[in-house]
Amino acid sequence: MTVLKKKYSTSITGLAITLLVVMVYCFSPKALTQLDYLFQSLHFQLRGTAEPGSNLVIAKIDEKSIDQLGRWPWPRSTFAKIIEKLTEMEAGVIAFDVIFSSPERDPFEDTLTKLDKMIPDNIQENNSAKDYLQQLIDERNPDKKFTETLSNTSNIVLGYFFHFSSLGLDHMTKEKRHDYFEDIKKSQFRGFLKSREDLDIASLPFREAFAVESNLTSFSKAASGSGYLTFNVDYDGVIRRLPLIVRYHDTQTKKDFFFPPLSFRILETYLDGSLLFRVGDSGMEEVIMDYETPAIIPTNSQGELEINYLGPRGTFPEFSISDLLEPGSPSKLKEKIQGKIVLIGATATALEDLRATPFDPVLPGVEIHATILDNFFSKSFLSQSSPFYDVPFILLTGILFTFIYLRIKPFYGLIFWAVSTTLLFLISHWVFIDKGFWLTDIYPFLSNTGIAAFILVSRFVNEEKQKRFIKEVFGQYLSPRVIKDLLAEPSKLQLGGEQKELTAFFTDLEGFTSFSEKLSATALVELLNSYLTEMTDILASNDGTLDRYDGDAIKAFFGAPVFFEDHARRACWTCIEMQERLAEMRQEAIRQGKPELLMRVGINTGSMVIGNMGSKTRMNYGMNGDSVNLCARLEGANKQYGTYSLISESTYQQAKEFIEVRELDTLRVVGRSTPLKIYELLGKKGSTKFHEAMPDYLDGLKNYKNQEWDSAIRYFEKVLTKVPKDGPSKTYIDRCHVFLESPPGENWDGVYNLRNK
After folding, report:
1. 156-163 and 93-96 as β-strands: parallel, antiparallel, unpaired?
2. What is the pTM of this model?
């Protein structure tokens, strides 16, 4: 029932994540939209370059042309020659991605005008001279000559551009804006098909322009048609859409007018037909190509066309303007131009008409217009991302992935996440290639990742709960380090062991039995728990492994299950820190009227068996062996010397660089024939309080070994004047008195036989 409940709750959360992603999709945060745009660019690049149609060619204003024809802008006479040359080569339509917004003045024309004004108008004899001067002025007026060229050519389409905000246009008055508007007024669009007669087109969500910058009035009137050059620029600076209609509100007439793009007018001039816009209450419903073979152009409600890019710079056939104007242009150039749409535009980097696209971060604007025209001709349109497709896609994948993640193991869940993420991308790529519309990439990815992360994290949390359970249950009799080792490698939880050189550590409270009889059971348990907690914390902080508690005794070892070279040093420092903390606890006990605890410690380094010992149903990770027994003897030997911390020779040799000691004795303990040199552990290196009495003590020990009992007694008594409670000095004084009465003999080896365990 618990497992089913967990699965049910996890599946509900998976669905909740999916619904949350759908809600985020509906709000379309800018950052996520930009990520979707990155995926779209990737789809274009994976698709690769597509072959353009044969209906158009680009006449480049490139570096070569500027080098040969002079610096930009070129005089109007050069553009007139371009038109004449293209007309001679029978171009189908000549379209300019160039705006002629400023008049061109000839300095000699100004001189002739001044001369004309100097000749009086009221003298009959001057009329012929003034007529001749006017003829010269007209001949020297480049704008007038260019206007004549435009008027004499029936297939010229010019461009203008809209400003969609007032930024940087403070200088442009309402009157000036109206004058510009008048220049483009004849290019307005009227081909709306309304879903109902009383529909107010001005209320529809079309892109609205603030101002227009057009060609000179004479040029606008002389050209066959004109359209705007403006694109939509997305958050990331990339051009992905073209508005097929822009609304402009004229401040003087207080009316709204609608204008189509340059590509629209080029198409209209080149083909026998037009575009029709069917509009309804929500905006653009459909755009109809009303030509020989009608087609529907997909747009969004704002009337924006998704541009289906064919490739990077150089995808379209092109030629340099300098090649066109070169005397005796090659006949191949005519084959390239004849009957085609010729788009004239800048490709030179210095002219800065470079735009970012999914294929190319610096694509000339003229190539974008060429792309849009090719989309019209080939009818290879893209449909924009739509909630009607995206939302069901997000929901379906979210439900499916929740179902799958609940039924596979975490490791396979990670593999499935990687595979499904790739699969989602491949599905959206196939839809883009085969069906021609965008499916969102980022939101299914977020849903998939969110669900996978939640389920995998949930399982991780559950595993952590299981680990905590193991720690709580097994931690009662296994050391924390062993538990950690077992969690990492459960296979270690088996009977058996191995022989290692480690350091054993035994403690016992002095007089525990006597004062335990004076305390109630509750008070005794409280006291013992407090003591064991403090001591065990110090043991753990030095990476000691608890073997077990034996009443008030602590049995531990250092160097397993994780081995470290300085196990002897760690054991010694643990002893020192325990004794220091116990001294603090005694001060607290005095203030509270509780018993004062004194602890004896024995430490020995040697070979021992370490591992899991016990039965198959209950085991303990612990130590065993002769070195362990010797450690117990050392702990008990403290009673003989009135000391509290004894270490063996082997421990001293490994830890002597880190500790202060004094040589205590050479013992032969019960059960061992080999003598053992022992030391009292005084403190960490440089921190002993016995320093002042040490010389007298060592002299006393030397005399004792030389059987100079009286001298030894004097030195040990000197020690007691400095350290009145020094147990070893009292012990040696007592021994010396015994040996004075019963000398040990000439063969005495100085070894003391410890008769008690």
Report:
1. parallel
2. 0.62
